[in-house]
Amino acid sequence: MKARTFTLPFLLMIFISSHFSLSTSKRILNDPYGFSSSASLSSLNAKMLISSFNLTPKYDVNVIPKGSPDAPRLVESQIDFPTTFGVQNVSGGPSVQQFGHYAGYYSLPHSKSAKMFYFFFESRNSSTDPVVIWLSGGPGCSSSVAMFYENGPFKISDDFSLSWNDFGWDKVSNLIYVDQPVGTGFSYTSDKSDLRHDEAGVSNDLYDFLQTFFKEHPKFAKNDFYITGESYAGHYIPALASRVHSGNKKKEGIPINLKGFAIGNGLTNPEIQYAAYGDYALQMKMITESDYEGIKQDYVECQSLIKKCNLDGGLACKSAFEVCDIILNMILAVKPGTNYYDVRKKCVGQLCYDFSKMETFLNKENVRKALGVGDIEFVSCSSTVYDAMTKDWMINLEVKIPDLVNDGMNLLIYAGEYDFICNWLGNSRWVDQMNWSGQKDFKSAKNVRFLVDGKEAGLLKNYGPLTFLKVHDAGHMVPMDQPKASLQMLMYWMQGKLSSTPRVGP
Ligand SMILES: *[C@@H]1O[C@H](CO)[C@@H](O)[C@H](O)[C@H]1NC(C)=O
Ligand SMILES: *[C@@H]1O[C@H](CO)[C@@H](O)[C@H](O)[C@H]1NC(C)=O
Ligand SMILES: *[C@@H]1O[C@H](CO)[C@@H](O)[C@H](O)[C@H]1NC(C)=O
Questions:
Q1: How big is the CA angle at 294 (ends 293 and 295), to the nearest 5 degrees?
Q2: Per-residue pLDDT tens for 297-317?
Q3: How many CB atoms lie within 10 A of CB 453?
Q4: What is the DSSP letter of 278?
Q5: Cα–Cα distance, 384 to 388 (Å, whole number)
Q6: Does the annotation count 51 as an active-site position?
Q7: If one looks up domain 1-498 in CATH, what number appears?
Q8: Which position among 129, 291, 342, 419 bears the catalytic label?
Q9: Which of 124, 129, 166, 497 has the most ligand 2 atoms within 8 A of CB, as the residue to mutate?
């Protein structure tokens, strides 16, 4: 009976009790710090996780004192990345000056005082390309993590200059990154009641954000529009897609030309995905058969609480969060040090990934000045925002999807095959089981090869508007691990060419 310490990466900051002994009773979380509420413990864990990514946000959340001055730039203005940040290597590409690159804040009308921060990069190809919004997970991590380490236009060099990312998603889309929910990244409020606790709050804010965005950028309102993201965004994305769909139907504001939504290694249907942890761990030899049997038993109560949470909400959701967490603890206790975003890798000491360059970069005086963030600090990942979403965690967002795909909206679920936390197995199961008009045909569709440069880069399955793609040689963050494949995936998908027909040749 040994107490073990876990450190887990963020993006999806799974709540892991920091000290856990295998012999503790199945249902009672150890509380070594004397916190009686799981919220405090979860916030403590979130902090540990943040540090395991080598991030050191100055504050837990961006809630500024009432009466503080707003960041000076409440309306965006164009930022000049090349001049300000010394973009290296414009090699062969078109001149940077011709692209609109923006950063700014929009006020959220249905909040007390929230301001949402975003970056907007016009497509390197054509302004008529689709508009794509990217949402990072956490909950509570800035989308800048993805922007600089996954699919944004630039990478940060060691000397903190920027260089072009050859596989940035802005090569085929007009690309937006927002810091959300409010309190995350550079987004802020002076009223704590603006912090969100559920997907209704999150999706309303994002809908309001999009309304302002298209009002300010009318020429992009006609373009196709896609919602994308990763990890906990497996919750945000169906909620936002559904919110946009209903806003369009009710003619609430500017119509948004939503064509589809894509979720990468997401958490969408917790009941199915928590059941898959044991199966995936066994398949990947992370645990033994006898561990597996124990985990299956632990799942029984986890499942019943998830069901209760989805029926009654409230406290059951918190209990489900705590109880289901035991399953993760059991599995993670077997091989401490495994990187659970990529089971091929180890975490070295506390460190699983190092995203500190982003933080250093965004804290630089000239960068802050160019972004117009005034005195607002950059909160790379907010433990308070994470905490505020505890009761949202076990909610099943899959239920919002059938209406959308039945109406012809395209859905792409993709997953890097070595991610444990939001593994492909759990994702493929809920996608198969989803009750929609094409369910039978989708379920019986064949897996075919997804080819990149003539090589198999993944396996995909498609029927009508629904596509599932298992990405080879990738963990939780597919665009970071397989940048070229991820760009091709996005492009083909938006062009309607990511289908079950195997492509051969060039
Ligand atoms: C620009 O990119 C090319 C090829 O990617 C590389 O060979 C060259 O060293 C880069 N130049 C700079 C200044 O980074
Ligand atoms: C680039 O833009 C043109 C329209 O100007 C479009 O036809 C083409 O498909 C786009 N290419 C990519 C790779 O998105
Ligand atoms: C699937 O959805 C349809 C339409 O909403 C409903 O009538 C049917 O009962 C559902 N089937 C299952 C197995 O849930």
A1: 90
A2: 999 999 999 999 999 998 999
A3: 9
A4: H
A5: 6
A6: no
A7: 3.40.50.1820
A8: 419
A9: 129
